Amino acid sequence: VHSQVCIIFHDFGKMQNVCNLLTEKLGSSVTISAPHFYHTPEAVDTLRRQVCVAAVGNTRRKAQEVCRLFGQSLGKPLLIREEETKEWGGHRDGHPSDTSGSLTLQERIQNATVYASCRVSAVFEIKGKENKRNKLL
Length: 137
Hints:
Layout: H1 12-26, H2 41-69, E1 72-88, H3 105-112, E2 115-128, H4 132-136
Antiparallel strand pairs: 1-2
């Protein structure tokens, strides 16, 4: 009697632990196939949002540094625009580039990794620093 079980893991570490446990408990009676990595559309969308938020945060920190250089303080954002978002690497469609199985696990992970970048522009209000004497009065 042969059975095939397909399990979807969201955590690579847990996948390794389960595979090790199955191999330990069932020995040669179990065959574990190489993992198939893929990204759900929701996961890629979450990555895009995280990258955009990080880009806006970086832009704000840089603007704060420039303001400090000129003795000013950064005010509220007046305009934030996402200029460009790029993604590369990975396989969102679930079809790896090498189906022969000759890739190592590390190569499979590397091929399945998705990278993203986002370019934003932002316009911030700039405030002059108040005189310390005026703050004390």
